[in-house]
From TrEMBL:
SUPFAM superfamilies: alpha-helical ferredoxin (SSF46548), FAD/NAD(P)-binding domain (SSF51905). The lineage of its organism: Bacteria, Pseudomonadati, Pseudomonadota, Alphaproteobacteria, Rhodobacterales. This is FAD-dependent oxidoreductase. It comes from the Bacteria. Residues 534-563 form the 4Fe-4S ferredoxin-type domain.
């Protein structure tokens, strides 16, 4: 009962009698730790919001440890990944996305320089051993995650060095060999990992043999063979396929003589080849691609599949790019190339309901060249794996865990046919090992993270000021050589400053807004400080469901949900 004294003031504590009871609105506040869109977009499975949170507090090594819980090669991915996380970043709704790949690269390099140990323990000497075919990014990731999950890993690599296409097909201007070697050597030095070099599947070791001698097999051979290419059955007599030509240059430093070159394709191999040939001294280099260049009206599904900064640098270096076009006819004088006839393409719906690129008659034109180089993709070398290839010449991976029809055999990375980036291969390696570990321990498959994604509309941008993105040092065009890395290191101060731009989407900032602004004092703050927001407690006896706490939550961590509370709960 409320007691009023002669001064018409309620006695202390009497306000506690005024409970909202069952007349609160139909909604009440709840804590929802949603996925940040950068995390949802990352093929490697990194939780960027989590490691940026450590950086915001100045804990650099802890940030790196959080990062490598998913991706053991941040020095590599920070340099070569197309960073879809930045495209997804909610910061774009305020100014510009976070420079996630630059900070990731810095963290990876810092770990190497400081000698930080990977957060893993040595597996038992008799732990189950997983056979891994290929030491590219997928195979290396799988080996690392085997150790993280208490398993041993044995890698079988056909080449004399580990690294796969990271070493043989990515120029040092994008991925310096010192950085690559440092990261790979640290990983391979982990206890429980064995590397067998010059050991080719189908020649030195057989798949059935591996299946019987190991607890599981992970196939990560990459795609080492170029797809067949011709124009109405015609091919130049001196045909040079893109990936093969790029590898030859990486080994010997020379290209065939040419003055005007057309590269037919639209991936990173095509862009790398164009830039290297221009730097080598070829007068005119033209990229002919069926895809579109970035623009305000570009359909994301039609966008050229290259790292955005690499495309920007190619244009700086004088590479001509003809979009929405393909080669229709080869023009030859005897056995010598003199040009290609190209035709424009447009996307139209087909009878199957899908969009298809069709040639646009009347747009034919001739480009004078003395060499044409196809870069239309690669396929798997079938040696030792013939019975696992599908009709498209890729390994038949059937689920999220990359299982193949053969029991206890997983296929990851480019060899699946639906992958194309280093980050995707790294993510595949992690997921395959998690499924293998679960099976060996008698557990069901790991549960997929089904948390909702936090959109920009779920944030309150009033609490975030505009902060310019860090400037990244870059070599001027005149100083770009075959060896010097073009994009530079941002350094510690810039990395920590960039971390302050993170919006912490879907995560509690401990800003006290909910506690301060609740008109009914229905938010209670405990004495303990918890990083997950649990130190803010909603007292539903007094909450009337006004939603102010959710509205004023900067990160969307508080949301209004259907009220299922009853007095006495």
């Amino acid at each position: 009962m409320v007691v009023i004294n002669r001064g018409a003031h309620a006695e202390p504590g009497t306000s506690l009698e005024f409970k909202t009871g069952n007349w609160r609105s139909s909604e009440c506040p709840v804590h929802v730790h949603a996925k940040a869109p950068c995390h949802a977009a990352c093929p490697a499975g990194e939780d960027q919001q989590a490691w940026f949170a450590w950086l915001q507090e100045g804990h650099v090594e802890e940030a790196w440890r959080e990062l490598v819980s998913a991706n053991p090669l941040p020095s590599v991915t920070g340099r070569v990944c197309p960073h879809p996380c930045e495209t997804a970043c909610n910061r774009t709704s305020i100014d510009t996305p976070l420079a996630i790949h630059n900070v990731e690269r810095w963290l990876g390099d810092e770990a190497v320089a400081k000698g930080w140990a990977y957060p893993v323990e040595a597996p038992a000497a008799d732990a189950p051993c997983v056979a891994i075919v290929g030491s590219g990014p997928g195979g290396l990731s799988a080996a690392y995650h085997c150790v993280r999950n208490g398993l041993r890993a044995e890698i079988f690599e056909a080449l004399p060095e580990a690294g796969g296409l990271l070493r043989s097909a990515i120029p040092p201007t994008r991925l310096p060999r010192t950085a690559l070697d440092a990261e790979i050597n640290r990983l391979l030095a982990l206890p429980g990992i064995t590397l067998n070099l010059r050991c080719r599947l189908g020649r030195d070791v057989m798949l059935d043999e591996l299946r019987h001698s190991h607890a599981a097999v992970i196939l990560s051979p990459g795609c080492g063979l170029s797809k067949e290419w011709n124009i109405d059955g015609a091919v130049p007599t001196d045909l040079h396929e893109g990936l093969h030509l790029l590898r030859e240059f990486m080994d010997h430093g020379e290209f065939p003589e040419a003055k005007r070159v057309a590269v037919h394709g639209g991936g990173n191999t095509a862009i790398d080849l164009c830039r290297l040939m221009k730097r080598y001294g070829v007068d005119d280099v033209t990229l002919i691609t069926a895809s579109a260049l970035p623009g305000p009206d570009t359909d994301p599904s039609d966008l050229i599949n290259v790292v955005p900064r690499e495309l920007e640098e190619a244009l700086e270096e004088g590479i001509e790019i003809i979009e929405h076009a393909t080669v229709k006819r080869l023009i030859m004088k005897g056995s010598r190339m003199t040009g290609v006839e190209i035709v424009s393409l447009k996307k139209l719906p087909g009878t199957d309901g899908r969009m298809h690129r069709v040639q646009f008659e009347g747009t034919e034109r001739v480009v004078s060249v003395d060499m044409v180089i196809p870069c239309i993709g690669e396929r798997v070398n079938p040696d030792g794996m013939h019975n696992l290839l599908n009709r498209w010449h890729y390994l038949d991976a059937q689920d999220r865990w990359s299982r193949t029809p053969q029991e206890n055999v997983h296929a990851i990375g480019d060899a699946r046919g639906d992958r194309g980036t280093v980050a995707e291969a790294i993510g595949d390696g992690r997921l395959a090992v998690e499924a293998i570990a679960a099976r060996l321990q008698g557990r069901p498959d790991p549960v997929e993270d089904a948390r909702p994604e936090m959109p920009a509309s779920g944030l309150n941008p009033v609490y975030f000021g505009r902060i310019s993105r860090i400037a990244v040092p870059k070599l001027p065009v005149a100083e770009r050589t075959f060896e010097a890395e073009i994009e530079g290191d941002i350094g510690r101060m810039a990395a920590l400053r960039e971390a302050t731009r993170c919006l912490s989407c879907g995560n509690c900032l401990a800003c006290d807004n909910c506690w301060v602004m609740c008109p009914d004092n229905a938010v209670i703050k405990t004495a303990e400080l918890a990083s997950d927001g649990s130190h803010y407690v909603f007292d539903l006896d007094f909450c009337k469901g006004c939603g102010i706490c959710a509205k004023e939550c900067p990160t969307g961590f508080i949301q209004m949900a259907e009220d299922t509370w009853h007095e006495g709960d």
